[in-house]
Design a protein that fits this description.
323 residues
């Protein structure tokens, strides 16, 4: 599946034209195109390679899945790999979608799977037609800005989940150490994956801004700088959130340890209280004569001693907050 669009002098010109016409269109002054492939076959990319003169190594990378985020520069083109973050799924794992792009002077070719929606990019382009005269850099900005916004939304969602996790730490009722621990580990894993996607993308944008692509004119440069600022902010937020998750894990372990200590104190206190009657009855049950032996007075004395000793220990332990 392929979608094509063309602009001429900053104005939308054609749409859904055959890929074979790319070279014809970009030969016209002021014309640039966007070609969007969904799950293309290697044979599909051969047409683009022929029409735009894309380097064979870039085409080879575009076919292979699982590329790391990067920006490769060839003689007449750039090869960009970014990941569009789809948020957290129902299990708490981060969903990411690989997006690759060939960038030439007059064309942007994006390649992705069917799980990627380019609607966000199209809406940005339609809303910023006043800077469309910047050509292909404008298309690149639309792609990078959409990816950055999705990453920002994901960071905000993770932040809300961490806040909920912190509230659950001190929730009254049945302790849920394992559930909190499991959620914390999933969030920390998601943040680690997000950082591995965002940092290289930030470096790619910085490379574009600092001269790796001469086509980034001064008029469009502030837009790329805005994307870079957002990516830097996301990176800082991810680092802070990872520290927050680690703090939740440490706090959860400390609370569990405190609860265990409380239980041990209660068990020890009751064991001490029970030990006193056992010791007294054992003493009066020895095979020796003692005052009150065989008399009701001896029974009353032992019962009084048991009750008094148990009550004394109970009040002492209660005062120390062991019971």
């Amino acid at each position: 599946m392929v979608m094509t669009r063309a602009w001429r002098n900053g104005t939308a010109a054609e749409r859904d034209f055959p890929v074979d016409r790319i070279s014809e269109l970009i030969a016209e002054d002021g014309t640039f195109v966007w070609v969007d492939y969904t799950d293309p076959e290697p044979s599909d990319l051969e047409h683009v390679e022929t029409e735009l003169g894309i380097h064979a190594l870039a085409v080879e990378d575009a076919v292979e899945r699982g590329q790391r985020p990067k920006l490769d520069r060839y003689r007449d083109s750039l090869f960009l790999v970014v990941y569009d973050v789809g948020g957290l799924d129902h299990a708490g794992d981060l969903t990411t979608h690989e997006v690759k792009a060939f960038v030439t002077e007059h064309a942007l070719v994006t390649i992705h799977g069917s799980d990627v929606d380019t609607g966000a990019m199209e809406r940005r382009l339609d809303a910023t037609t006043d800077i469309a005269d910047h050509g292909v850099p404008w298309l690149m900005w639309g792609l990078l800005d959409a990816v950055t916004d999705h990453a920002t939304n994901t960071v905000e969602d993770i932040e809300r989940r961490i806040d909920a996790l912190e509230e659950d730490l001190f929730e009254h009722g049945t302790p849920r150490e394992k559930q909190i621990q499991r959620r914390s580990f999933r969030l920390r894993k998601a943040l680690g994956v997000l950082r591995r996607q965002v940092v290289p993308t930030r470096d790619s944008v910085a490379s574009l801004l600092h001269g790796d692509a001469e086509t980034i004119s001064d008029g469009i440069r502030p837009y790329f700088r805005d994307v870079e600022d957002h990516l830097v902010s996301i990176t800082d937020s991810v680092d802070q959130l990872r520290d927050a998750v680690s703090s939740v894990l440490d706090t959860n372990l400390n609370l569990a340890s405190n609860r265990q200590n409380t239980v041990m104190k209660k068990v020890t206190s009751w064991a001490a209280i029970i030990a006193i009657p056992t010791a007294i009855t054992g003493f009066f049950g020895q095979n020796l004569k003692f005052p009150g032996m065989g008399e009701w007075s001896g029974l009353y004395f032992s019962l009084g001693l048991i009750i008094a000793s148990s009550l004394t220990l109970y009040r002492v332990f209660k005062a120390k907050d062991w019971l």
